[in-house]
Specification:
The protein is built from eleven helices and 22 strands. The protein is of the alpha/beta class. Helix 1 packs parallel to helix 8, helix 3 packs across helix 4 and helix 3 crosses helix 6. The protein is globular and about 65 Å long. The termini are far apart.
Length: about 425
């Protein structure tokens, strides 16, 4: 069965960027349709990304904190984990939040269409869903179709023991030995979870540090800490992956590469994400998509087609939910006739590992590359009474500031709950505070 809808605004994708844009459009009095491939709102972030990972990281943190108390005289013993109950709790968290979004959409009278949407013209979109096809005629469109994990041609991704981040978050099993390909935020967060649940973890990273985008000084502190839990293989890359009956065999080359292929019970491929720009038939609407799948926009989030906008992962780095939310608000307000544009001074990033790694503004490396005359100041948490009393004295806070004006231009933190401290640094940069 096919149906047809006419609307002022259609938003393609209901992740944080998409639903934020749709809700803002509705709040501004625009008739809005929200298209989502999942059966629930929230996109990758809420259904199979940010939110379930935070739920599992909470479990991991409690396990690790209980274990750390042993040397202070509090012994809980080896935890007994029921993976089915943990999974059910994670799903409960997701369902509560997706249900909340559904209620918010209904309250704003946003029409939700479930299915895979593709452009058929400059003002038409076709959505293929379980109930048939829906044609949406729109005045304005906002593309918020997100991204997906990178796949490598030599890896047997069809094997159930080869995971991407979505597979890892399903928590179907706890492998005895897990290889994490990629020392970025996603890989290290999942390594944190599975280590706490009992897996032996190897992490392979082709660069000379994990979390390559973060400041080297805080990463050094972080690396020293996690090296006690994970086997880190930096400046090393995977060259072959073979699926056999008794495991996944992985060959590597580089500085820390083992001499022979290693057998793993599971392999998590977490080497980055690619935008979904090429799967939308955006060209039929006249929208330009580059070779990588990104859609270029101006500061008002407009594509090369004036009535079509793009937001979120699909417009470029950093691929972060809070960035997409702000872009969504900008696009909605511009469509409604308000004067608004996306021009953030800084965008914060946080790895919710243990310890957390958080940074905002320029790193020292970036300051050097830009030719900025700068100075730095570091504060070791070993000098903090609260940190010592809380048994997290191995953290550090670092500020980067302009040498002449002393204005803060960047900052980084490593330590327990470090992400909770980052907002003040971001505000200091935004307000032009000096160090």
């Amino acid at each position: 069965m096919s149906t047809e809808i006419k609307t002022q605004v259609v938003v393609l994708g209901a992740g944080p960027a998409g639903y934020s844009a749709a809700f803002r459009c509705a709040d501004l009095g625009l008739e809005t349709v929200l298209v989502e491939r999942y059966s629930t709102l929230g996109g990758v972030c809420l259904n199979v990304g940010c939110i379930p990972s935070k739920a599992l990281l909470h479990v991991a943190k409690v396990i690790e904190e209980a274990k750390a108390l042993e040397e202070h005289g509090i012994v809980f013993g080896q935890p007994s984990t029921d993976i089915n109950k943990i999974r059910s709790w994670k799903e409960k968290v997701i369902n509560q939040l997706t249900g909340g979004l559904s209620g918010m959409a209904k309250g704003r009278k946003v029409t939700v269409v479930n299915g895979l949407g593709k452009f058929t013209g400059a003002n038409t979109l076709m959505v293929e869903g379980e109930g048939g096809a829906t044609t949406i005629n729109f005045d304005n469109a906002i593309i918020a179709a997100g991204s997906r994990p990178i796949e490598l041609p030599f890896i047997p991704h069809e094997d159930p023991r080869v995971w991407d981040s979505t597979d890892a978050l399903e928590l179907k099993e706890v492998p005895k030995r897990l290889l994490v390909m990629g020392g970025g935020i996603i890989g290290l967060e999942m390594a944190t979870v599975y280590h706490a649940l009992g897996s032996e973890i190897d992490v392979v990273e082709m660069f000379d540090q994990v979390i390559p985008a973060a400041d080297k000084d805080v990463v050094k502190v972080f690396t020293k800490k996690i090296s006690k839990k994970f086997n880190l293989m930096l400046e090393t890359k995977v060259t072959a992956v073979e699926a056999k009956d008794d495991g996944i065999y992985v060959s590597m080359e580089g500085k820390k590469a083992p001499g022979e292929a290693q057998r793993y019970d599971a392999v998590l491929v977490a080497i980055g994400r690619v935008p979904n720009g090429k799967g939308l038939d955006a060209g039929k609407a006249g929208v330009e998509v580059d070779d990588r799948g990104f859609i270029r926009v101006d500061k008002q989030m407009r594509t090369n087609v004036p009535h079509i906008y793009a937001i979120g992962d699909i417009v470029g780095q950093p691929m972060l939910a809070h960035k997409g939310v702000h872009e969504g608000h900008v696009a909605a307000e511009v469509i409604s006739g308000l004067k608004h544009y996306f021009d953030p001074k800084v965008i914060p990033s946080i790895a919710y590992t243990e310890p957390e790694v958080a940074w905002v503004g320029l790193t020292e490396k970036e300051a050097k590359e830009k030719g900025i005359s700068y100075e730095t100041s570091t504060f070791p948490w070993a000098a903090s009474g609260r940190a010592i009393a809380s048994d997290c004295a191995d953290g550090m806070t670092k500020l980067i500031f302009d040498k002449e004006t002393h204005r803060v231009i960047g900052g980084a933190i490593v330590g327990t709950n470090g992400g909770e401290l980052l907002g003040e640094i971001g505000l200091a940069i935004e307000m032009g505070c000096d160090a």
